[in-house]
Amino acid sequence: DFEFSKLGHELAVGSGIGELMEDLGNALASGGDEIRMLGGGQPAHIPEVNALWRRRMEEILEEPGSLERVLSNYDPPQGNPEFIKALAELFREQFGWKVTDQHFAVSSGGQTAFFFLFNLLAGDMPDGRRKKILLPLVPEYIGYANQGTCGDLFRAVPPKIEKTGEHEFKYRVDFDQLEVTDDIAAICVSRPTNPTGNVLTDGEIDKLSKLAKKHGIPLIIDNAYGAPFPNIIFTEATPVWDDHIILTLSLSKIGLPGTRTGIVVAHPTIAKAVAEMSSVVGLSNPNIGQAIAKPLIKSGEILRLANEVVQPFYVEKSRLAQEWVKESFGDRFNYYIHRSEGALFLWLWFPGLPITSRELYERLKRRGVLIISGHYFFFGLEDESWPHRHECLRMTFTMDERTVKEGIAAIGEEVAKACSSS
Ligand code: PLP
């Protein structure tokens, strides 16, 4: 037997995100018909989007020296300079933000950017204090949960639950309970939120931003699904950035998850620190995604792709999934769908569910349907007695119609069975 360090235990021995990516990778690799994969954050293969990646690869192959520059060079750890220049221009033009090339750092996917940012800002400080990341609203992205290199990194605040329809609800930040104590290093939210599809309102973001600024700490906004790309947002939401805001983006959800390309927009001190961390951990970043996207960012085509292809595609996917939930669940049991305002998921809540969501996950897995148990998304929250955290699940609606429809039907049957036998 090998002995593992504390950090080893944190990173290498069982995590929700590890389980999820195992399930996801195996389901995709098996190519099998027998698994209904509603678990991961795998974006859809949209034919028009994939055709564009193919065209870009052909262009890279055709242009003399282009392929060799991509495959045979290390980029600087901050990222490809031309890619960054194009990004900075896009953000200045689109949003009027006063950002220079020094405000950017590329990372090996957004996931890695978070590992760097959280451990840069929080954990054991040089003066012996221990700092945490404040999640103003949970459920929040499962991928953050195990990222702390000095153990438990998060403090979370439960949301206000607002019923917005017969079978619909929305989480709101509970500002009355939100307290920024001395040991808070930063505030962090994903917007749109994974797992719920919630989009924090402009008002909520403004309040969080002011609160962070007042305490001299960063507000981290995880924009993996946000504007300007992939812009998988179904409501109105203004993108924001400021000197104290750290915005992260990714090329994954527009359709390039395999390239592992994350982007951090932050004060130059933060951006530089992320670049330094990239060099220590990985020397340099994968550059094929940057090479594919660069001309699309320069020309603005990436905006057309996001707004005219990707966004409408997921609007329809969300609408259909909600329709099938309603058809399939009927009035056999009590349920609510979180208002679907963006991202790739429906978040389902079964008030009074007689089994835990973990048990529901197990039962569904046994019949070949993979979802994510909601309990994983409530990390950082001490109150174990709150039933809500064991009454929810996340299901992805990006897969083909049959998979999603049959998956939803199975969820309905299992919940009905659990409710009737209690
Ligand atoms: N942040 C959120 C909210 C996500 O949902 C994901 C992926 O699902 C990520 C970050 C990380 O994505 P990637 O590392 O592919 O950029």
Description:
Helix content is about 40%, strand content about 15%. By secondary structure, the protein is α/β, with parallel strands linked by helices. It folds into 2 domains: about 5-50 and about 305-420, Aspartate Aminotransferase, domain 1, CATH 3.90.1150.10; about 75-300, Type I PLP-dependent aspartate aminotransferase-like (Major domain) (Aspartate Aminotransferase, domain 2, 3-Layer(aba) Sandwich). The radius of gyration is 21 Å and the shape is globular. The termini are far apart. Bound molecules: pyridoxal-5'-phosphate. The site of pyridoxal-5'-phosphate (PLP) has 14 residues, from α6.
Task: Describe the protein's topology.
Blueprint: H1 6-12, H2 16-30, E1 36-37, H3 47-62, H4 66-71, H5 81-95, E2 104-107, H6 109-121, E3 123-124, E4 130-135, E5 154-156, E6 160-165, E7 168-172, E8 184-190, H7 202-214, E9 219-222, E10 245-250, E11 262-265, H8 268-282, H9 288-299, H10 301-329, E12 336-338, E13 345-349, H11 357-366, E14 369-370, E15 372-373, E16 392-396, H12 401-420
Parallel strand pairs: 1-14, 4-5, 4-8, 7-12, 8-9, 9-10
Antiparallel strand pairs: 2-11, 3-4, 6-7, 10-11, 12-13, 13-16, 15-16
Helix pairs in contact: 5-9, 6-8, 10-12
Bound molecules: pyridoxal-5'-phosphate.
Pyridoxal-5'-phosphate (PLP) is lined by residues 41, 109-111, 141, 143, 190, 194, 222, 224, 250, 252, 257, 262.
